[in-house]
Amino acid sequence: MSCDNTTKDKMMFINSYKVDCTGVGKMQCLQVKYTDSDNWVYFYDTIEGFDFKPGYLYKIEVSIDAIDTSTLPSDKSNLKFTLKKVISKQKDITYRLNDIWVVTHINNEELDKASFQLPQLEISLKNKQLLGNDGCNNIKGTINRITDSEIELGPMMGTKKMCPQMDIPNKFNRVISEIRSYKLDGLELIFFDKKNKEIMRSMKFD
Predict the structure, then answer these.
(1) Which of 54, 75, 151, 165 is most exposed by smallest CB count within 10 Å?
(2) Which residues fall within 8 angstroms of residue 100, CB to CB, at 6 or more apart?
(3) What distance lies between CA 184 and its chain's CA centroid?
(4) Beta pairing class for 181-185 and 26-33
(5) Alpha carbon of 146 to those of 15, 37, 93, 101, 185: distances in Å?
(6) How many other C-beta atoms lie within 10 A of the C-beta of residue 177?
(7) Would you say 31 and 20 are in contact if contact means Cβ atoms under 8 Å apart?
(8) pLDDT tens string for the chain (206 positions)?
């Protein structure tokens, strides 16, 4: 956009959480897109008058003004974004996944709570990561795609130690790669395979 003091109105979609980014220094950026089908991109500016609350998906209208760069520091954007109106504000179902979850059932079989350690999953949408422990080894993987009901995980990596009790870790590792969808039910997070069969159930960690 040229710096000719023109004003343009534009629709923006705002994701439900900020991400770590690097501008002049380390900071947290909004994630925005301009059509529903676009991919999220980092937004390094501010939107005057917009009060962002994590956990909500926004659709807003902004005015964008070009600013004379001769009056700006070299590290400042030549665009000024101002909120005109909030068109919609909806709770993001996926935001609740950002937590630590203790696995209680695998293939509808309740795990023995007296076992050495129950598997745990820590989901970070901001980093697109799944971390945790399979009941023996630490694990780490990527979240390639997520919607309000579907989830696609990348390959899992983990440590390779042997524990006295490997039954639960072995069961966990057999099903983790089969996860295709999920459902949140109160404090429970339930995972399903491609045939919509429940394969793992977990409880929010206190």
Answers:
(1) 75
(2) 120, 121, 122, 132, 204, 205
(3) 15
(4) unpaired
(5) 13, 14, 11, 17, 17
(6) 12
(7) no
(8) 444 557 799 999 999 999 999 877 899 999 999 998 899 999 999 999 999 999 999 999 999 998 876 665 655 678 899 999 999 999 999 999 999 999 999 999 999 887 678 999 999 998 999 999 999 999 999 999 999 999 999 999 999 999 988 999 999 999 999 999 999 999 999 999 999 999 999 999 97
